[in-house]
Each structure stands twice: as structure tokens, then as C-alpha cells.
Amino acid sequence: MYKQIDSNKRKTWLLMFIFIVVIIGLGWAWSQYYGDEAYGVIMLAAIFALVMSLTSFYAGDKIALTQAGAKQITKDDNLYIWRLVENLSITSGLPMPKVYIIEDTHMNAFATGRDPQHASIALTTGLINNLENEELEGVIAHELSHVKNYDIRLAMVVIICVGLITLLADWMLRSFFWRDRRNSDNKNSGGILIIVGLILALLSPLFAKLIQLAVSRKREFLADASGALLTRYPEGLAKALKKISQQTQPLRTANKATAHLYFASPFSGRNVQKLFSTHPPIEARVKALMEMA
């Protein structure tokens, strides 16, 4: 587990570095196409990438929670959920995270934040209303394991990096097509850059998916195992997974950028291809848990 924590910390900084390099590369392509001084544009791109990287690191959790429509609660709002999270936090040796509720009949949950001291956990009302106490404990323990393993930091940075790279690629492609070139000498290079921009825009969804998969599906198995050890009842988490696998309605606020955050794929009922799913098959997770029982 400690190796996993160290690995996640390294992956976070590596991903932020790659993100900055990609943004600088896009800035260079922009400068070459428009005939501007490459140095100035690259500097602006580097500053922009650095600012966005820091934003993802320090405010990515707020962005994810806002996008999910999560509302923070206090002990008085829902004492039952508050006590479950508090008791499991004490058992795991973690600080009490902020607790959020998502008003949706879909059963799911996620944890986010840059470290255990700045963590949040969000649960849908569907999850709360449809799971038994032991099953809900298993899901919360799973999410707290993500907090302890620093999975939340890596997953949070992915949201901003993937989303922004995709957005910039699309924006540059549109700009290449619709803006008249100021200099006929750039005709050949402009044509090449249009092709590069087109390829980048077309492949950006694949790039986004590959980066998400780079976070590794193994972290879900690790969190399942850690959560089961925390509750001492693997069957509870296995039962929760079985119930979640039977739902057909997707989470209304889910999108591709945040899908990897959730306890299970939020796209239930959309026939997601298992090859490109951000989560391992539920059947495999259940089997691994039952072998621990």
C-alpha cells in the first residue's frame, strides 16, 4: 500500500509535467501557423499550463464536486451518513473528510481532494436509499481507501488536464480552418498544421481515455481490498457491487472527464465497451472480494 501511495504521488507530478509540455507544444504550433514570434507564444502557453496545473491541484476537487451537483452536508443534515463516514475515518486513521450528497437515483459515490487533509466524499441519494448498512459501509470504506492511497490526487489532476487538452485541440482546429492566413509563405506549413490539428482533434477522445486508463484500473481492486480490510466484511462491499451492476439508468451529471472518479462506472445502461471502461468489470471485483471472505 505504501508503494502504491508513493507511485500515485510520482504519477501526479509526471502527469502535470506532461500536461505542461503538451500545452507548450500547442503554443508552438499556434505560433508557427500565425507567423508570430514563437518565443512569446510558447512563454504564454507555459504560463497558462502552469496556472491550470496549479488550479487542478488546488481546486480540482471543487470543480469535480460542482460538476457533479454535490451539496455539502453537516451532521445535523444527515446524522446517519455523517456517523458512518466519521466512524470509518477514525478506524482508518484518517481526518474526517467533508461529506457531500448528490440528488440522483443512480447508485454511486466518489472521493476527491489533493490529500487526506483536504478530502471530500460524495454519495448519491440512490446509493443511500437502496443499500443496507453493511453495503453502504463497504462503499464508504472503499472511497476512504482512495483517500488514504492518494488515488484522489492523481484522479483529480486527470480531470483538468484531459479536459483542457481536448478543448484546446478542438479550438485550434476550428481556428486553423476558419481564420485566413496572413502570409502566403505559410501555405505549406499551414496545410501541415491543419492536418496535425485535425488528427489531434479526432484522436483527443482516445488520448483522454488513455490518460484515464493510465491512472490504472488496479487502484479499484486495491481500494476494494483496503475497504474490505477496513470493515472486516468483504461480502458487504460485494453485495453493494452486485446491486449497482443491476441498475440501468446512468448518472445524469456524469461525463467522460470525471468517470474515473466514481465507485463504479456512472454510464450504466449505455453499453460501455469494457475495453475502454475506466473501471474493471464488476464481476471480477466481486470475485476478488468473495475470495477474501
From TrEMBL:
Enzyme Commission number(s) from the entry: 3.4.24.-
GO BP of this protein: proteolysis
InterPro entries per record: HtpX_protease, Pept_M48_protease_HtpX, Peptidase_M48
Coiled-coil residue spans: none
Compartments (UniProt record): Cell membrane
Names of the cofactor(s): Zn(2+)
Binding-site residues, Zn(2+): H142, H146, E220
Ranges that cross the membrane: 12-33, 39-59, 154-172, 192-211
One Pfam family in the UniProt entry: Peptidase_M48
Major subcellular location class: membrane
Bilayer topology term: Multi-pass membrane protein
Keyword annotations: Cell membrane, Hydrolase, Membrane, Metal-binding, Metalloprotease, Protease, Transmembrane, Transmembrane helix, Zinc
GO cellular component: plasma membrane
Comment on bound cofactor: Binds 1 zinc ion per subunit.
Record domain Peptidase M48: where: 78-292
Residue positions of the active site: E143
GO molecular function: metalloendopeptidase activity; zinc ion binding
CDD domains noted in UniProt: M48B_Htpx_like (cd07340)
Enzyme's top EC category: hydrolase
Family: Belongs to the peptidase M48B family.
Name of protein: Protease HtpX homolog
Lineage: Bacteria, Candidatus Komeiliibacteriota
